[in-house]
Amino acid sequence: MNTTPFLHAALGMVFALVCGAAAAQTGAGTPPTGTPEERLKVILQDPQQLEAYARMGQKVSLFCANCHGDGGNSVSSEVPNLAGQNPTYLLTQVRQFADGSRRFEFMERLIKAMPVDERLGVAVYYARQPVKPQPVKDAALVAKGKQYYDKICWRCHGEQGHGSESFARVAGQQTVYLTQTLQNYRGSIGTRVNPLMTANTVHMSDADLRAVVAYVSSMR
After folding, report:
1. 11, 122, 206, 212: most buried by Cβ count inside 10 Å?
2. CA separation for the pair 106, 103 (Å, rounded)
3. Per-residue pLDDT tens digits of the chain, which is 220 residues long
4. Global confidence as pTM
5. Treating both helix axes as pointing N-terminal to C-terminal, what angle do 105-112 and 4-23 enclose, rounded to 10 degrees?
6. Is residue 41 within 8 Å of 35, Cβ to Cβ?
7. Cα dist. 169→33, 80, 139 in Å?
8. Could you tell me if 61 and 122 are in contact, meaning their C-beta atoms sit under 8 angstroms apart?
């Protein structure tokens, strides 16, 4: 008997209960109107709204912590950190899971159960959390990765690897997740297609990839 659908349904019910409790306790007053992106801009400029949505996001994150860790620092090297990401970038990823343009069934089911306010809260909350960088295990490899990063990657991800509204923060990211993601982009594998990333990874050697992962995962 395949128990996966029942597990997903049960998790969805628990998540809905957590989200419902969070929504009832935000104290955010009248929420901003417009598209989620427009609403996020208003929230980021209003200290009262910002605090209220961050509190909501913290409550919702209690469920997310099972995979993404306390404060968005992942409990598994295969699962990405959410801490420190740009809130607009996070909101975009949430939308892509919800509309199916970024595929991962478990995430899709959970996010589809989240009202827009809770999606905004999660984005705001995780964006404000500090990232725990990975320890340096091979200084020479890190130095080689820095050379590659400073030549290619910084143009999109920033000199410090902190990303932007359009590009992910990579500084302090989990090593296995980074490795798998770069390999997928390099080989055009999977459903997460990004022509710019493919163009910038297609000529990476395995040695280059390992070095870049070692460097960016150690960045603060």
Report:
1. 122
2. 9
3. 443 443 344 344 444 444 554 444 455 567 788 999 999 999 999 999 999 999 999 999 999 999 999 999 998 999 999 999 999 999 999 999 998 888 888 898 889 999 999 999 999 999 999 999 888 999 999 999 999 999 999 999 999 999 999 999 999 999 999 999 999 999 998 878 889 999 999 999 999 999 999 999 999 9
4. 0.86
5. 30
6. no
7. 28, 11, 22
8. yes
Q: Encoding tokens for residue 79? A: 């699962």
SS3 assignment for the chain: CCCHHHHHHHHHHHHHHHHHHHHCCCCCCCCCCCCHHHHHHHHHHCHHHHHHHHHHHHHHHHHHHHHHCHHHCCCCCCCCCCCCCCHHHHHHHHHHHHHCCCCCHHHHHHHHCCCHHHHHHHHHHHHCCCCCCCCCCCHHHHHHHHHHHHHHHHHHHCCCCCCCCCCCCCCCCCHHHHHHHHHHHHHCCCCCCCHHHHHHHCCCCHHHHHHHHHHHHHCC
Ramachandran region of residue 131, left (φ > 0), alpha (ψ -120 to 50) or beta?
A: beta
Half-sphere exposure of 122 (CA within 13 A, CB side): 28
**Token pair in block for residue 210:** 């390992």
Chain position carrying tokens 């990211």: 173
Residues in contact with 91: Cβ distance below 8 Å, sequence separation at least 6, in sequence order: 36, 37, 40, 119, 120, 123
